[in-house]
């Protein structure tokens, strides 16, 4: 399967946000993530930092306002 885990970078550390993400949709200043079980996660004031397709990891970082 092709699920990915979502992380956010905080103070140089990676914190797990959600596991087994199957859908990622842009929403205003953030994203909506949906996991394999159908749970929805809304992230605001973030951008994608990078994606590691081999490791199945999505990394986000906060937008400074």
Overview of the structural elements:
Helix content is 0%, strand content 71%. It has one domain (4-62). It is globular. The N and C termini lie far apart (37 Å). It has a 6-stranded mixed beta sheet, with no helix packed on it. With 65 residues, it is mainly beta. The model has no long low-confidence stretch (mean pLDDT 95). The relative contact order is 0.30. A hairpin with a 2-residue loop joins β2 and β3 (30-35).
Classification by helices and strands: mainly beta
Count of structural domains? 1
Distance between the termini: 37 Å
The largest sheet, given as strand count, sense and whether it forms a barrel, is:
6 strands, mixed
Annotation keywords:
single chain; 71% strand; 6-stranded mixed β-sheet; mainly beta
Summarize the structure.
The protein is mainly beta. 0% of the residues lie in helices and 71% in strands. It is globular.
Secondary structure layout:
Elements: E1 4-10, E2 13-27, E3 30-35, E4 40-44, E5 46-52, E6 57-62
Parallel strand pairs: 1-6
Antiparallel strand pairs: 1-2, 2-3, 3-4, 5-6
